[in-house]
Every structure is written in C-alpha cells, then in structure tokens.
C-alpha cells in the first residue's frame, strides 16, 4: 500500500477508536443497572424508568387500645401508662375513661401522658361533662396531625352519651371510642349503628386505612360486635381483656374499616412484665401490629 494511504488509514482508525470511547465504550463506573436495563445517570442524578414498586413503600405501625380507668381509679398511674406505651413501641394509642381538669383529677391527663412520651400529638374527645370538667376518650400518636375532631355519639336508649376521638396523619385515620354499657347488644348496638352510618358517609373509598379502637363493652357474638363486623375487619384477637385481675370478658377491640385501604396484622401479642396491669386499670391493654403499602 502506498505510504500516504497507510498514514490516512492509521489516522482514520485512531479517530474511530476515539469516537467509540467517547460515545459507547463500557465503563461500569458510569452506568447503573436498573432492573434488566443499564442507564447512564445524567448530571449526577439517578433517572429510573417508571416502576410501580419504586412508587410505594411499606409502613409498619403498632396500635394500642387501653381503658385506663382514669389513670388508676383514683391513684396516679399516669407514669405507668406512659412507660407501657413507650416499651411496646406504640405509634398510636386510644385511651378510654380519661379525665380532663375535673374535681376527680385536676390535671389534663391525656396531655400529660403525651408530654411524658416526648411531646406526642393528642386529641381529647369529651363524652360528657363530669365533676366540673371533662371525661371521655383520647387519641395520641407519635406523628404530626393533619386533622383532629370529635364525633359525638347519642345516648339513645342507654345511660350515657359517648364520643369518638378522631385523628389523621399522613398514614392513617385513627379513632378511639368507648361505647355505653348495658344488656348485651343494647344500647351499645345503637351506638355501633350510628358509627357505621357516619363512616359509610364520610370514609367510603378513602385511600388511607381507617382504624377504630376502644372499649365496646360487650363480647364477640353480640349484636354490637356483629354490627361492627359488618363494616369493619377485626384486627385484634378475641382476648379476654376484663377484668385485669381475673379476665372473663373480651370488651376491647381494634378494627379496620372495610370501605377504605386495608392492612395486614403482623402481631397480636400483649407483652408481659412491663407494668402491673391489675394495679393500673381494671382492663388489660390490647396491642396490634400492622403493615400496609402506601404511595411515596
């Protein structure tokens, strides 16, 4: 071959090699494997093709319902209740029979428990005026609140009006209630019907799980619990929760509303050895751990 042609051929080969290195050579430090494809990040950022799994994440929460009996039926067991919630890793708790600035307990019990837990969010729902102050249910959680309100429940043919404390966070709607006492299924049945009507009107199709927890004052199989089972999935096991000294009845439950996002139960065990349950309240607490998927 003519020397000039040798020179031109060499120059052409060098140029092709250079172009290949600039535009398509394999450098593992410049590429990322994303599923079954490789992509070069742009501007130092990772650009990922749309994939549903990358747009969701798993959430795990520990829920508690506890009828605290005015924090110890005249004694101050507030520290024990706060310790219990801390030790079980509670994220949300519904507390029943809570006093607020009345003659029996002059302090705001729900706020005081929340403060002992490091400044938790809280909402107190007075069921009725009592001894110059309030008495009812409280919902507390370790997350900021997006919304909070009280749903009053009429007395109906029963003894007392009741309430539902409702709080909403970025993950769930959590409610705490305590239905009236009386013959099995009456009057708590009327109150359960009222609750179901309210949630059917306001939370059907809701994108977050909607949880209600509390003392329903009646055993499984009664008209009240059957009515709750119609609209709600029971998350708690039918454990005997009353009395704390000699448990003979299942009165305390955790439910998830069927018309909203659903959850999976991962544990249903009441831890032992944290506090003296029989000295703290006449009820045992109920602890339920759940998980679900949410969009990021």
Chain-wise SSE layout:
Layout lengths: L2 H21 L8 E3 L2 E3 L16 E12 L1 H4 L5 H10 L4 E9 L8 H8 L4 E10 L2 E9 L5 E7 L8 E7 L4 E6 L9 H16 L6 E6 L7 H9 E3 L17 E6 L6 E4 L9 H4 L5 E10 L1
Parallel strand pairs: 3-4, 9-10
Antiparallel strand pairs: 1-2, 3-14, 4-6, 5-6, 7-8, 8-9, 10-12, 11-12, 13-14
Helix pairs in contact: 3-4, 5-6
Task: Explain the overall architecture.
The chain is an alpha+beta fold. The protein has 7 helices and 14 strands. It folds into 2 domains: 3-49, no CATH class; 59-295, 4-Layer Sandwich (Deoxyribonuclease I, Chain A). A hairpin with a 4-residue loop joins strand 8 (162-168) and strand 9 (173-178). Helix 3 packs across helix 4.
Task: Write a brief structural summary.
The protein is an alpha+beta fold. It is built from 7 helices and 14 strands. Helix 3 (78-87) crosses helix 4 (109-116) and helix 5 (188-203) packs parallel to helix 6 (223-231).
């Amino acid at each position: 071959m003519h020397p000039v042609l040798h020179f031109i051929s060499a120059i052409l080969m060098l140029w092709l090699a250079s172009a290949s290195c600039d535009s398509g050579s394999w450098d593992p430090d410049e590429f990322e494997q994303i599923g079954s494809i490789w992509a070069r990040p742009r501007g130092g950022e990772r650009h990922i093709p749309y994939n549903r799994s990358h747009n969701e994440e798993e959430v795990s929460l520990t829920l508690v319902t506890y009828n605290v009996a005015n924090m110890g039926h005249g004694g101050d067991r507030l520290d024990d209740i706060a310790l219990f919630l801390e030790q079980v890793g509670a994220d949300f708790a519904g507390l029943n029979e809570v006093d607020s600035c009345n003659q029996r307990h002059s302090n705001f019990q729900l706020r005081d428990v929340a403060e002992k837990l490091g400044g938790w969010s809280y909402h107190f729902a007075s069921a009725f005026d009592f001894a110059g102050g309030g008495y009812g249910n409280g919902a507390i959680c370790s997350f900021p609140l997006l919304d909070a309100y009280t749903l009053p429940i009429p007395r109906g043919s029963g003894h007392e009006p009741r309430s539902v404390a409702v709080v909403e966070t970025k993950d769930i709607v959590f409610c705490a209630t305590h239905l009236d006492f009386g013959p099995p299924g009456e009057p708590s049945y009327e109150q359960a019907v009222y609750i179901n009507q309210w949630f059917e009107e306001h939370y059907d199709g809701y994108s977050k799980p909607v949880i209600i927890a509390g003392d329903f004052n009646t055993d499984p199989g009664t008209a009240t619990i059957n009515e709750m089972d119609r609209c709600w999935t029971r998350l708690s096991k039918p454990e005997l929760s009353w009395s704390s000294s000699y448990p003979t009845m299942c009165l305390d439950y955790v439910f998830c509303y069927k018309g909203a996002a659903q959850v999976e139960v991962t544990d249903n065990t009441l831890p032992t050895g944290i506090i003296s349950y029989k000295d703290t309240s006449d009820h045992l607490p109920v602890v339920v751990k759940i998980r679900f998927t949410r969009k990021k």
